[in-house]
Amino acid sequence: MAGTPRVARRLSASLDGGPREVEALQQALRESEARYEQLLDAVTDYAYVVSFGQGDVVETRHGVGCLHVTGYPPEDFEADPYLWINIVHPEDREAVLERSAKLLTGDVPPLEHRIQHRDGSIRWVRSTIIRHVEDAKLVRYDGILRDITERRRIEKALHDNEVQLLMAQKIQEHLLPKKAPNLPGYDIAGVLYPADFAAGDYFDFLPNGGDRIDLVIGDVTGHGFSSALIMSLTQVLLRLLVEAHADIPQVLRHANSVLSRATDEYHFVTLLLGRLDAPRREFLYASAGHPPAYLLDRDGNVKQYLESTSHPLGMFSDITFPTAEVVQLELGDTLVLVTDGIEEARNKAGEYFGRERLVKAIRRHLRESAQQIAEALCRAAWKFTGQVTADDDTTVVVVRVLDE
Fold first, then answer.
1. Of 125, 169, 204, 282, which residue is 20 to 30 A from 178 by alpha carbon distance?
2. Which residues of the chain are under the pLDDT cut of 50?
């Protein structure tokens, strides 16, 4: 310790001094001890040296970092020559011993393994060894153990999160419609582009007997695994409830009852559920806080915005979800359902894509197929933001009433 010689000299000089000199010496010792403790706390790597003579280990020196990494001071390792292997996790001992045997004849790569700290906790360490050879004989090797427990914890958390997202992605891929419905006189399509591995958006086509079909488009607040899980739950709920109940408000009321209990205050679902009666060309819908749908005629004029009729699902436990007036469709009409990832896409200046740009994008592709219109809207929103992909999930459902 750097301060020790000076303290010793002051000790010698103070033997003949008075109480003030003794008190000053005691203060100097306390300060020196405090600096030593700080230095010891700062040592996070455990360095050691193993020396050989005639092929056998003749000396092992342990640095003060062993106390930080293992919980044992150097004197414990000196007293017990097997402590270094006894603290290795039982499942990792074979690998550590095999590596120790190999280093006698050649270089070995770093090894990451577990040890049991003196406090009983399991720690991850990275062991690095540098060999020193003279006249083709190993005379010494220097080793360093670095505590990498926190790094391993972060890596595991990231891996677990990625696994969860991939699982959610697979679930969603299974639940999303495999193909659009085939209704005479209609061209229907839907697209979904997630911002992350898994989406908080979804859409669905649910047969409702004969020439009727239910269209669903929804969006859960937030991104990531929790939002994707809630959306998958919502999708399964809607499929079951549509089969059990013919009334749209009743379907949404039951779905809301489940979601308000299953989600927290930070997650809710905006959703539009509409029923298309193909022969009558009628569209009946209820919207739970969802962005408006767009109905355009054959010339691209906006006939109607299909606005929300209630609050989002999961926000309040006891509310109703009334339907709007029946929307009468005509030959050549185009109905477009979107999530907020389209309208609320923002460029670098902070401007929103908005309704006006969305309508213009629909008009530019009005004579194309439903699939082409849906994909073109997503591309238009991405281009507006100046990004290759969007910050939010983008989902579009398009229904074209074909000219007879």
1. 282
2. 1-5, 7-8, 11, 14-15, 36-37, 39-42
Output the pLDDT for position 32: 63
Per DSSP, the residues of 70-106 read HS--HHHHHH-TTHHHHTB-GGGHHHHHHHHHHTTTS
Whose CA is closest to 276, among 295, 258, 291?
Answer: 295
CATH number for region 177-401: 3.60.40.10
Rounded to whole angstroms, the Cα distance separating 123 from 146 reads 10
Q: Hey, do 43-147 and 177-401 end up sharing a CATH topology, with the first three levels equal?
A: no
Distance separating alpha carbons of residues 170 and 103, to the nearest angstrom: 46
Q: How far apart are CA 379 and CA 63, in angstroms?
A: 61
Dist. CA 228–CA 202, nearest whole Å: 9
> Is the pTM for the entire model greater than 0.90?
no
User: How many angstroms separate the CA atoms of 277 and 347, rounded?
Assistant: 39
Q: Quote the pLDDT of residue 11.
A: 47
For 103-119, the DSSP string reads TTTS----EEEEEE-TT
- Tell me, which fold does domain 43-147 have in CATH? Beta-Lactamase (3.30.450)
Model pLDDT, residue 173: 67
The residue type of 65 is: G
Coil, strand or helix at 400: strand
pLDDT at residue number 1: 43
Distance CA 81, CA 70 (A): 15
Helix H or strand E segment including 33:
helix 19-42
> Structural domain boundaries of the chain?
1-40, 43-147, 177-401
Neighbouring CB atoms inside 10 A of 364's CB total: 14
3-state secondary structure of 165: helix
Q: How far apart are the first and last CA of the chain?
A: 95
DSSP string, 290-323: PPPEEEE-TTS-EEEEE---BPPBTT-SS-----
CB neighbour list of residue 221: distance below 8 Å, 6 or more residues apart: 200, 227, 266, 267, 268, 269
Task: Identify the pLDDT of residue 41.
Answer: 46
In angstroms, rounded to a whole number, what is the distance separating the alpha carbons of residues 159 and 257? 34
Structure confidence at residue 29 (pLDDT): 66
**Distance in angstroms (rounded) separating the CA atoms of residues 241 and 137:** 78
